[in-house]
Design a protein that fits this description.
The protein is mostly helical. The chain contains 7 helices and no strands. Among the domains are: about 30 residues; about 80 residues.
């Protein structure tokens, strides 16, 4: 039976309606009892898996009978985490030392995505604050060797990169005549 009382009530109504119409309700697969031990639950799960194998429910799955790719020769207990991070392209996961190092390497691209100087300055100050905070913490893992950034120098570099992008856009963009909509004479 289900632990959800709504589901149990609906199952009861369905069984009663079937009996009233002269039909026999389907027998419900009983799981392990609530007060069962871990060994009994494990035995129930194993039995369910074996029955599904005999019914052929696992036949034809992709990758069946093939070794797992990219396991390599060395034993890495966290291989599945690394693969999930790579396939899902997740960022911001891991010890601060590694995430800050990656963020520092991509700081120019991150700042170029920001439109206003005040926001760039705020993002750089936040980065420096997180680097200093990570250096103070004793969380384990690799040491934090990421340097802080010079906010004024980075803002100046951001301004220069923005100016160059705007000049390049002005050169490549076709010149368009603006129409005056206000004061247009008929």
């Amino acid at each position: 039976m289900s632990d959800d009382p709504r589901q149990s009530a609906e199952r009861y109504r369905l069984d009663r309606a079937l009996r009233e119409n002269g039909l026999e309700p389907e027998p419900q697969a009983e799981g392990p009892a609530r007060g069962s031990t871990a060994a009994e639950r494990a035995a129930f799960v194993e039995t369910s898996i074996q029955q599904a194998i005999r019914r052929g429910e696992f036949d034809g799955l992709p990758g069946a009978g093939k070794p797992l790719p990219d396991l390599g020769g060395s034993h890495d207990p966290d291989w599945w985490i690394r693969r999930k991070i790579e396939t899902e392209q997740l960022t911001g996961l891991g010890p601060p030392a590694l995430t800050l190092r990656v963020e520092h390497a991509e700081i120019a691209q991150r700042m170029d995505a920001i439109a206003h100087e005040a926001d760039v300055r705020e993002a750089l100050e936040d980065f420096n604050r997180r680097v200093l905070e990570a250096r103070r913490q004793l969380l384990g893992g690799p040491p934090v060797v990421t340097p802080t950034v010079d906010v004024d120098a980075e803002v100046a570099a951001w301004i220069e990169r923005r100016r160059v992008r705007e000049e390049a856009a002005a050169i490549t963009a076709p010149t368009r005549r603006r129409r005056r909509w206000l004061g247009r004479r008929s």
